[in-house]
Amino acid sequence: MNAHASLFTCQATDGSARAGTLITPHGVIQTPIFMPVGTLGTVKSLDPHDLYAMGAQIILGNTYHLYLRPGDEMIARRGGLHKFMRWDKPILTDSGGFQVFSLAGLRTITDDGVEFSSHIDGSKHFFSPEKVIAIQTNLGSDIMMVLDECVPYGADHDYTAKSLKKTTAWAKRCRAAYTRGETGNQLMFGIVQGGFFKDLRTQSAREITAIPFEGYAIGGLSVGESKREMLDMLEHTTPLLPSEKPRYLMGVGAPMDLVNGIRNGVDMFDCVLPTRNARNGTLFTSLGKVNIKRAQYREDDSPLDPHCSCYTCRNFSKAYLRHLYVSRELLSYRLNSIHNLHFLLDLVKKARKAIFEGRYEMFYKHWQTIYPE
Amino acid sequence: MNAHASLFTCQATDGSARAGTLITPHGVIQTPIFMPVGTLGTVKSLDPHDLYAMGAQIILGNTYHLYLRPGDEMIARRGGLHKFMRWDKPILTDSGGFQVFSLAGLRTITDDGVEFSSHIDGSKHFFSPEKVIAIQTNLGSDIMMVLDECVPYGADHDYTAKSLKKTTAWAKRCRAAYTRGETGNQLMFGIVQGGFFKDLRTQSAREITAIPFEGYAIGGLSVGESKREMLDMLEHTTPLLPSEKPRYLMGVGAPMDLVNGIRNGVDMFDCVLPTRNARNGTLFTSLGKVNIKRAQYREDDSPLDPHCSCYTCRNFSKAYLRHLYVSRELLSYRLNSIHNLHFLLDLVKKARKAIFEGRYEMFYKHWQTIYPE
């Protein structure tokens, strides 16, 4: 297809909320969408069939982790990440920046990039903007992310402003390193930073959206701030992004964060929360959170969620799920992960329907009563 | 059906090897068969769908573990183990004796049974012959096993002879506690012991087969002896069991042990070996053992076993399986377990076919070259 054709189509809006489609090399995504995180070439405890069955449309891979193990060049020799892990639908890869910047004490940031030590064997590595794009090219993801600095919560205005300069300069270098339709077919998204300062968020949005990316992400949220602060920054930043491109709120995955994000015009989300919570026995349901290890479920023969059609809810009781969790059985991780991901995928599907039917505010208010903040 | 009708039918023999069918309350099993072990109401890392898909006909549950957690009475209130774990095919439960006798230092054997401390919380419990039958009645398994003492490898003639007396007395008490067609519909198998003394094996077989069980097991093998010693005892004991009842070799699951067992007239096997090996990265294939963590598989795009039709081999490469194993990903346990169990189920299916076609010796010789001892 023509590299200049519109990849994103907004099909319906309801207030700021929008429903659309995004064309990627491995197929069309219906937005809003939640992306399960498959750090190391697998969404933890699940196989591709589990993901297809729950209706996952796109998953996320972590560049930092895959670069270290098994290595992006090894994956390229296998024909890319899709073939390696047997997932035929779209994949988004992050830039690795977030993981590297989280390696406190093990990394040095310069204008040119970031030097870091592997958490596996201590070996030294360097990520430049060009390097993370080369890695993501090797992985062959459908959507690449630019290298950015996600400033820690509590960073002051001065640090955040300086960091912003780097993030913008790196975004330009990433774009220069790869042009869709020439270098290859992958999409590339820019990332707006700016910490918790509205002037810096405005500046970042202006600078990043001046670069022609196929989509724009909001980074640096859900890093320790209150829900109120997150929402405040989201409400400020989302309108600064072009309406004709997809918007991606990074690292956010609590049910109400999705509902709020969509209400503010966000199209895409990812987070380890649903799978990590699942492995810790915390499950999202249409009636609120369930902590499956609680004694009250010991002899509860009902499914986790009476309104859920996932494999877990169709087949197993809370009593059985509690037994598996308490016994630390491996099946517990998988059945819980299937449910939590299905729940979020179903939530965004229902959000999409509500947008088409012009009743998003009702949808929003309903979920506010289930997951009050 | 009539409690006195024949549950086991021998359909074909080839030398001592035999192919047959065994009727149980949850369906007919085609023998010879391997039974995956589902200790705590799940075959580790797998769900019932995985087991159906690989052609598992019957699985095993562990009475000791289920009694302690979640409790046999709790399972009875759920409608039994089948309903609790959503497995509709046959289940065999052991008596719990083997696990209890393995609790060295934590148990006291008397003529009446065995007192032991829970490995979970140290609480005191007592298993009598009647008690383990009551527990297995609560679990609602298709085949119950009598309480026996599995004597440790190296036990002398005197200890083994005394132990034998208890095992026979307990077998009689188990049979007296439950009569198929009157008390319920479950089958009960007796267990021949006798350590590594042929005179005691003969005595045990005579005493146990004098009690009318629906099947007979050979216990106390694969406890530390050499392959030669195991085979020696097997060759001695199997002919002492009635040909019109199914024969079950307990705790045996290496490929050649199955091939040898079937050659000696054994119909049923169980073992944790295939699933435990799978979790340790050791995989059985039609070309021999594969240790998936070896560097030679790093970039090997071929399936584990070119002749295998399991879900793992149909979808994933050795390179991917090695990556999952090295990265300690949860999916590794499941994909490896699916393969190893499928391999053994396929092996006994091929053995059955070879028996029908009168070429078991060729089959036996082929596998001897693949898994030399």
TrEMBL record, chains A, B:
Taxonomy, superkingdom: Bacteria
Cofactor: Zn(2+)
Molecular function GO labels: metal ion binding; tRNA-guanosine(34) queuine transglycosylase activity
Gene3D superfamilies (UniProt xref): Queuine tRNA-ribosyltransferase-like
EC number(s) recorded for this UniProt protein: 2.4.2.29
Annotated binding of substrate, by residue: D94, S95, G96, G97, F98, D148, Q193, G220
Region (RNA binding): 251-257, 275-279
Pathway: tRNA modification; tRNA-queuosine biosynthesis
InterPro entries per the UniProt record, alphabetical: ArchSynthase1/Queuine_TRR, TGT, TGT-like_sf, tRNA_ribo_trans-like
Family: Belongs to the queuine tRNA-ribosyltransferase family.
SUBUNIT field: Homodimer. Within each dimer, one monomer is responsible for RNA recognition and catalysis, while the other monomer binds to the replacement base PreQ1.
Protein name: Queuine tRNA-ribosyltransferase
